[in-house]
Amino acid sequence: MNFRFNDSHDWFFRERFGMFVHWGIYAVKGWHEQLQWRRNVPKEEYVKLKDQFNPSRFNPDAWLDLCEAAGMTYLCFTAKHHDGFCMWDTKQTDYNIMNTPYRRDVLAMLAEACHRRGIRLGLYYSCPDWHHPNALNFGGSHQLPQPNPGDQPDLLKYIDFVQRQVVELCTNYGTISEFFWDIPQGMNFPQLNETIRRLQPECLINDRGYGPGDYSTPEREIPAGTAFEKPTEACDSVGRCSWGYRVNEDYYTPLTIMRNMDKILSRGGNFLLNVGPKPDGTIPAEAETILRRVGEWFKSVREAFEDTEPFAFDEPVWNATFTRKKNGTLYVHFPDGLLASGFELPLDVDEIPRKVTLLNHGQCLDAMVDEMPSHALQDRLDFHIFGLDANRLVDTVPIVKVEW
């Protein structure tokens, strides 16, 4: 793995953990961000949600406090989801945040806070649109089964609308570090990405839009392999059922998220973890608890992901994966947990490490060159690292640092 962007884009390989935020008028019902489509809600009924959307407790600094507590250094916000409702003061449609009881540009508020606090801002934009009269809704991927009454589907007119909104987003909200298209339509309109690159030269673009992007975006999955072959940002949510706010959400355990994060980060990818704020603008307490616990773990072990490369021995090591720094420092990851209180490394060297540390707690571990019974007939020596309190580490992802 030796991919690289130009210098203005290299933040992507340093700032590995970000917050995804799915927020819109769908939060009013607290069921799912795709409420309109999945429950077949008529457009004339769905649009009434904007008249109930009044996030009087929205405080972008509270979001960013949580972002920092989790060790996150960038945030990606849903400017427009599939329902077509725009969370900024767009001049291209009146279906936007300014025509709710709140009547304030939440994206402007969030952008100001991000830039003031040095947290990078990314924007999500849905390719499908269930509201715009010119959008295509003929039952394709995440499209309504048929156009709304009175719609006049016209692809070129819709792309022109998208282009004008992209200009707004890339002009009025300061530096945008990433642009996250969603639901690729299998169409190539290169002028859209060209506009983003012209107006935001430091912005990275994902691979779900109207043309080739800079990085891939696996969603709720752990791709096979030990190292990604191209820049990658995996995304998942704190809840199993929904990305937007859900009243009866099935929240993942922090351990589940830590394990998935480790498997992505140790392979050279980034991890974007989503929360769905409530209609009043606050983040659910359950989501906050998860992020803070994940943050405790990530901050204690983050050096295992910073300026490291994925590494693999010629033979598999018991339940472990690896990252390594250029100076040779090795990090041994156990994303599925420890199986015992010790393990060995198949290293052909004649001296013990200078220091072996459990990153999670800073504990120094015992290590020695040893003839392990399982390898005795092979006439070989291993590094035997032992003395781990495996029972104490069942609720975390242990990472061991080995220095020579």
Order of helices and strands: HEHHHEHEHEHEEHEHEEEEEEEEE
- State mean pLDDT (0 to 100 scale): 95
Tell me the CATH superfamily of the largest domain: Glycosidases
The count of strands amounts to 16
Main CATH class of the largest domain? Alpha Beta
Spatial ordering of strands, largest sheet: 5-4-3-2-1-7-6
Q: Which CATH architecture of the largest domain would you pick?
A: Alpha-Beta Barrel
Total domain units: 2
- Look at the helices and sheets and give the structural class: alpha/beta
Helix content: 10-25%
The third-level CATH topology of the largest domain is TIM Barrel
Mind explaining what this structure looks like?
There is one protein chain. The chain is α/β, with parallel strands linked by helices and 404 residues long. The protein has two domains: 7-303, Alpha-Beta Barrel (TIM Barrel); 309-403, Sandwich (Immunoglobulin-like), CATH 2.60.40.1180. Helices cover 22% and strands 18% of the residues. It is built from nine helices and 16 strands. It has helices spanning 11-14, 35-38, 43-46, 60-69, 106-117, 155-171, 190-199, 254-265, 285-301, and strands spanning 17-21, 74-80, 120-126, 178-182, 204-205, 233-237, 270-275, 309-311, 321-324, 330-333, 343-345, 355-358, 363-364, 366-370, 382-386, 399-403. The strands form three sheets. It has a seven-stranded parallel beta sheet with strand order 5-4-3-2-1-7-6. Strands 8-9-10-16-12-13 form a six-stranded antiparallel beta sheet, with no helix packed on it. A three-stranded antiparallel beta sheet has the order 11-15-14, with no helix packed on it. β6 (233-237), α8 (254-265) and β7 (270-275) form a beta-alpha-beta unit. The longest helix is centred in the middle third of the chain and has 17 residues, at 155-171. It is elongated and about 80 Å long. 43% of the residues are buried. The model has no long low-confidence stretch (mean pLDDT 95).
